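Predict the 3D structure for this chain.
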Amino acid sequence: MDGSSPPRPEDVFDFKAPDWGPIFEARTARLQRLREQPEIRRGLEGWYSIRPVDFIRDWGMTSDPRNAEIGLPVTVPFVLFPRQAEFIQWLYDRWKGREDGMCEKSRDMGVSWLTVGFAVWMWRFHPSTVVGFGSRKEEYVDKIGDPKSLFWKAREFIRLLPLEFQPKGYDPREHAPHMRIINPENGAAIVGEAGSNIGRGNRTSIYIVDEAAFLEHQEATDAALSQTSNCKIWASTPNGAGNAFARKKMAGKLDCFTFRWQDDPRKDEAWYKKQCENLDASIVAQEIDIDYAASLQDTLIDGALIAQAQRLKAADVAAVGPWIVGIDAAHFGDDESVIHMRRGRFNMEQVVRKGFDGPALAALVEGLVKELVRFGDPLYAIVVELDGPGVSAYDSLRRGKFGDAVFGVHTGARESNDYDWNLRARMWRAARDYLKEGGALLPPCPKLSAQLSTVRYKHKDGLLLIEAKKDYKRENGCSPDRADAFALTFAAPQMGAGPASFEPDFDSFE
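Done. Predicted structure below.
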């Protein structure tokens, strides 16, 4: 859409008060033009072959039986809201890039229909491709006449396409038997598997695992799929932290697409409040707030506190007091060096790097802090964990412009209070209490929230003891670097005599 063209009906669609009439009218006019000018079909074929979003938006239909109870049509045009369109493009990019990916989602975001729409687009426009679907039960993949099954959705999607976009010779009785849909014109196929059979079939162009966190034998499924496709997509709402889907998320090695309920224009705070009133808190946390720790009983920070802090906007929080910077330096391999910058109740987006040695990390920190204080905002402390490359980063920072504000800490150092086993426990306790007080803004980073909500605790001789990094990494596939960088900012206030306010000499920056 450009400035001289009227908006498409889809671009001004009101998802809270849907009126599909203008969209049906636009589709009817589009189809009439196509039939009056059949020569444009060839151009459309090429256009749609690389634009799945346009194909689904122009011709796709979806079904929601819940519409009947409120007097709306059950079968309606598939109007994509912006985040849904981004997901379709994300699937396309993963497939073309021969990359695996995962999708974590809040409930009822339309992901099943989106993956089906993408599969039918691929089946229609890309000869000899094979799209695989897998789920924990066969009835979720294919059960004739059951709208909850993926293949029912796929057959309906195809049936409701204009004849111009259905394959020549396609007969659902012949070409869409149980667990298979064949394109007789170009040889493409959509195939399904369930339970322990997932990944046991033929090679596929892309394989989509539906509700992957609920599979019974996830590691075995991963092993079976490893040679099946160059593009595997695991999609699910969370199901706790002790499963392969959660470990994929924690490890951070896969590109992760996140569908939050806030992305859905049909939902608002009133909707969320109603869910909280009607559903168990653990269900809200897990299936709506995407909280992997909802089923864990021994995590220190409640995922609901994190979700609350991540829902706030910068305009909701006043940055008061001096800046405190926490630095968790990468130890080895795929660990991350993370810089967390906090001023009172305001927390900036974390800065994350891999492969930086201590001096390079120190130079990055100095540049960031210079910007923080450029307009006169005070700096209280730069806290560096003295472990691995953190030692050389600390040494470099102490020699730099902000040396008087730099503090090195050993988080394993024993505490002398009556509550905490060591400094790590004290700073994590302070981080939890900070969030419990409310009114704090955290950056909306899924990795940060996942780590904060899954670090476990226990008591030793009556004192709080936080799960060690190495134990967390062994369980979750990654180090809790982002969570620890945030917690390190709470090591600063009790480190002994330090500058109440450090205001650098700006002339030295020139």
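The first strand starts at residue 61 and ends at 63.
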